[in-house]
Automatic annotation (TrEMBL):
This is non-specific serine/threonine protein kinase. The chain crosses the membrane at residues 139-162. The keyword Glycoprotein applies. It comes from Gossypium lobatum. Keywords: ATP-binding, Glycoprotein, Kinase, Lectin, Membrane, Nucleotide-binding, Receptor, Serine/threonine-protein kinase, Signal, Transferase, Transmembrane, Transmembrane helix.
Length: 523
């Protein structure tokens, strides 16, 4: 009840909380020093006085046989006129011992209205009874109740803690998920692994969720945990089925998807942890660390090999749908691994993919995908073309500026038209690069960016070209200047930007052709 201590005097008005309180004691006359008094084990005098004219209550304490001090211990402005004038007023004593057994004694008292109460004859008052309890009885009367209270409080606290913890780690498990048991993680394990999803464990965030670093408590395996919001219950079963299928993919250039966890409207995807993070942080914004050409070329070839595996070598066709530098992670040896399969779709070989919502990142979307909503291996090839130019040039596919938005593939194409395609290479490469490899990547990036899907090579051919097992087709044979690249970025991106202009371009519609695009210097 907000008591100041366990040895105090208080004035309570219609309640158990004191309106005014002070440690037990008295003000010594003359010196006016305050002397403390113990309320336990000794006789004490108490004066309680109410002054009707001044509407004030005074409480004064003093040791036994000491006259009343002039200065009261407590003085509280209080109007009791409505109570005093009431014929039903009572005056008396009451006490409460709480959980500890105590005894209260009133050795004598005096009361008077409209005047001074009669002084007590202290010599005639009985002595305070003294009881010397045995050690065993003291243990039983004081220790046992105290221990009981502690045990009860501990039990209640334990139940409350258990219930809260149970709700905190509650998961949704439906019958159809039982077959995916080995691929499902407990939310509690992921919570412990990421230290409660603390910000210091945050690896990155994007439009589809946040990624946290974690260490699984049992196996001590380092993992990356992605929290994905999935509010649509209708497609949950199909989505998890595809996630579990993708978890069976095995390739040295793919980030291994270890499993998932489902809790309420949230999905958590668990991946292998890549210690060197994503590729994009080595490319943009004057990075402190950058990759030389040998490392970049190895990453490009590795991602190409991973995409070829997804398209042709696995039991089903897997369309990644979001190939870009930020989704390529680097392992401890700086090998590129394609990750983030949150948008991936699967279908059987020899069948046609179904139409879906347009998903992906602007600048990597093939024009036919923005028109039909159908993702195919050709749309992944288009995104891989943008990725190759991104790595070789160190620039994003679309560079936004206050006056214009410049498309990277158009600028590379303009450099090729001028007969100096190497002008488009990343200036951070310096002079330490293989010119023929850079030129190959830039030309192959343009070929993969053709607006007509049938004009793009397959990932099998891309891998063969990068490995030198197949010659690169000449750009002139594709007649890109007439319709290819200009058509791709004039119509394909314009249509998409008009549909999503608010969230992506802040209300600015886009229109670009090869002739109108221009980039000079810098990133």
């Amino acid at each position: 009840f907000d008591d100041i201590n366990d040895n105090h005097v208080g004035i309570d008005i219609n309640g158990l909380k004191s309106n005014l309180s002070f440690p037990a004691g008295y003000h010594e006359d003359g010196s006016r020093q305050f002397r403390n008094l113990s309320l336990i084990g000794q006789r004490i005098q108490v004066w309680v006085e109410y002054h009707g004219l001044e509407k004030r209550m005074d409480v004064t304490l003093a040791p036994f046989r000491l006259s009343k001090p002039k200065t009261p211990l407590l003085s509280l402005p209080l109007d009791l006129s409505s109570i005093v004038l009431n014929n039903g007023m009572y005056v008396g004593f009451s006490s409460s011992t709480g959980s500890v057994l105590t005894s209260h004694y009133v050795l004598g008292w005096s009361f008077k209205m409209n005047g001074q109460a009669q002084e007590l004859t202290l010599s005639q008052l009985p002595k305070l009874p003294r009881v010397g309890p045995k050690k065993i009885s003291r243990l039983l009367t004081i220790g046992l109740p105290l221990i009981s209270v502690i045990v009860i409080l501990a039990a209640v606290s334990g139940v409350v803690y258990f219930m809260r913890r149970k709700r905190k780690f509650a998961e949704v498990v439906e019958d159809w998920e039982l077959e995916y048991g080995p691929h499902r993680f407990k939310f509690k394990d992921l919570y412990v692994a990421t230290k409660g999803f603390k910000d210091k464990e945050l690896l990155g965030s994007g439009g589809f969720g946040k990624v946290f670093r974690g260490v699984l408590p049992t196996s001590k395996l380092e993992v990356a945990v992605k929290r994905v919001s999935h509010e649509s219950r209708q497609g949950m079963k199909e989505f998890i089925a595809e996630i579990v299928s993708i978890g069976r993919l095995r390739h040295r250039n793919l980030v291994q998807l270890l499993g998932y966890c489902r809790r309420k409207d949230e999905l958590l995807l668990v991946y292998d942890y890549m210690p060197n993070g994503s590729l994009d942080k080595y490319l943009y914004g004057q990075p402190k660390l950058t990759l030389n050409w040998r490392q970049r070329f190895r990453v490009i070839k590795g991602v190409a090999s991973g995409l070829f595996y997804l398209h042709e070598e696995w039991e089903q066709v897997v369309i990644h749908r979001d190939v870009k530098a930020s989704n390529v992670l680097l392992d401890s040896e700086l090998n590129g691994r394609l990750g983030d399969f949150g948008l991936a779709r699967l279908y059987d070989h020899g069948t046609e993919p179904q139409t879906t919502h347009i998903m992906g990142t602007l600048g990597y979307l093939a024009p036919e995908h923005t028109r039909t909503g159908r993702a195919t291996p050709c749309t992944d090839v288009f995104a891989f073309g943008a990725f190759m130019l991104e790595v070789a040039c160190g620039r994003r596919p679309i560079l936004q500026s206050p006056t214009d938005n410049v498309i990277l593939v158009d600028w590379v194409y303009s450099c090729w038209c001028k007969g100096d395609i190497l002008e488009a290479k990343d200036p951070y490469l310096g002079s330490d690069y293989a010119a023929e490899e850079v030129e190959l990547v830039l030309k192959l990036g343009l070929i993969c960016s053709h607006s007509q899907p049938e004009a793009r090579p397959t990932m099998r051919h891309v891998v063969q070209i990068l490995d030198g097992d197949m010659p690169s087709p000449e750009l002139s044979s594709l007649s890109l200047s007439s319709s290819g690249l200009a058509y791709a970025h004039g119509e394909g991106f314009d249509g998409f930007s008009m549909m999503y202009t608010t969230s992506t371009y802040n209300g600015t519609s886009q229109s670009s052709t090869v002739a109108a695009s221009h980039l000079s210097g810098g990133r």
